[in-house]
Known about the structure:
Chain A has helices at 6-10, 21-24, 26-35, 160-164, 168-175, 198-204, 211-214, 251-254, 281-294, 296-302, 350-363, 371-384, 419-433, and strands at 13-14, 17-19, 42-46, 55-61, 64-70, 76-80, 95-97, 101-102, 109-110, 116-118, 141-145, 148-152, 183-184, 190-194, 239-241, 247-249, 257-260, 266-269, 307-312, 316-319, 324-332, 335-342, 344-345, 392-394, 403-405, 410-414.
Amino acid sequence: xxxxxxxxxxxxxxxxxxxxxxxxxxxxxxxxxxxxxxxxxxxxxxxxxxxxxxxxxxxxxxxxxxxxxxxxxxxxxxxxxxxxxxxxxxxxxxxxxxxxxxxxxxxxxxxxxxxxxxxxxxxxxxxxxxxxxxxxxxxxxxxxxxxxxxxxxxxxxxxxxxxxxxxxxxxxxxxxxxxxxxxxxxxxxxxxxxxxxxxxxxxxxxxxxxxxxxxxxxxxxxxxxxxxxxxxxxxxxxxxxxxxxxxxxxxxxxxxxxxxxxxxxxxxxxxxxxxxxxxxxxxxxxxxxxxxxxxxxxxxxxxxxxxxxxxxxxxxxxxxxxxxxxxxxxxxxxxxxxxxxxxxxxxxxxxxxxxxxxxxxxxxxxxxxxxxxxxxxxxxxxxxxxxxxxxxxxxxxxxxxxxxxxxxxxxxxxxxxxxxxxxxxxxxxxxxxxxx
Amino acid sequence: xxxxxxxxxxxxxxxxxxxxxxxxxxxxxxxxxxxxxxxxxxxxxxxxxxxxxxxxxxxxxxxxxxxxxxxxxxxxxxxxxxxxxxxxxxxxxxxxxxxxxxxxxxxxxxxxxxxxxxxxxxxxxxxxxxxxxxxxxxxxxxxxxxxxxxxxxxxxxxxxxxxxxxxxxxxxxx
Lengths: 436, 174
């Protein structure tokens, strides 16, 4: 019997390794949904998805269905998508606009902030029935930073400022690229799923060690990846030849760093690309538009990339290279769904936004050149972990080589190492063992 | 009409009096090249400025301002196919086996003078890989240009009935 006591949980994680059950055991998954997805701050949506009062999108936080909606007073609200009466999902469309939300089953009608407005045939209500007690449940805590809306489904716990503070620079790095200082996530979505545990995707976003191997098929004979940004002639140099004509990971790729800042958050440093040679009609017009708003000097600062991929543990990653926001939705111990939102930079020429949307189709969609090989890795990992040959999964690379980084107030290590995964498991244990 | 000029509600029944068989044979040929993994030959069916589009929402008006499952020009198609030929493409190790079925072929538009045609058809592609079989189904539109005895594809749009679902990884074109 597994009760999920701190004592039991801490036995699953040792320095540099984790027990395979953490990926395969449905009981542990249920506890994760309660204690991590039910406690931590989760990306729920972006304000640009719901510009007008009554606009809504429906999505899920872990397995819990939510409605992200603009109330008539202008505030963004996150409501649980479950009728307070008998439980049906109230809003069934992926997005839309509604003056009020009516449940299909018995016609109960809610305001856009979840307040119960009307009960059909109210004369039959019990004597003690009070409409005030039957609104759509709201996410207990909500926080916003530069349009990114996060919720916690727990009344208490780590505060929003503590959660978002160390990652603000990562969000700024992306949002500042917009000439109007705002981004929008209204360019559709990519959805994919894989037959593997959700943590495989979370670990992967800060894993640079896998790239030369997992993504070999995206690299040309010169060892360069295909061009992933508007204006680049080629992508990052990932593989190079040794003197005796053997393949090795390129020094430029190996030189990258990863950073962690607590709560499982972290990022990897930028990908080395030929920034000075980056040019195209769309990119040059974009640079001009940005410089017109912020000045040439600041434009150059903004367009000197600092971050490759950033993780807001546990359900959100933001990629600076192929601009997108990725949201992880665990379905079961061995099924995970992922949603990818292309980022549009407000005030940028349409051609620039369009180029980013088009490149994202081939980097992070279900049909993409990059993501599909990751999905195969996740699937094969889940299969391999059925083997009882060992109870342990190793992520000890670089243990003891972590160093403090004053510039970012972070801890840093080679991006070829596995510090970021170790940090994620510290946070995992912290959320899982936190007193309810 | 979408931004690439395809009608959103084509005339029912299509245009009578034009030999449908030539188009049907061409579409069968196209599907067979994909099924036989003759990806380069498939790409060569497209005109130099040809486009291949599989939208990710029903009735999607535009491939430039919204995410799509596929929206390849010849350049992206070439990169995609080079990757499909790479010995270390893990998502195709082992490769998919596919079979296309094409039916309900209709001539939607015909400009005999310019030798350009818009053909719609129903398609189904079964895909099998590693003990999993799945089906893609939808209505597709081909804007074709006559070239000698055959045609080239200026635009192919596939409207999958489940285009907005969460897909498991897809490596081969539909």
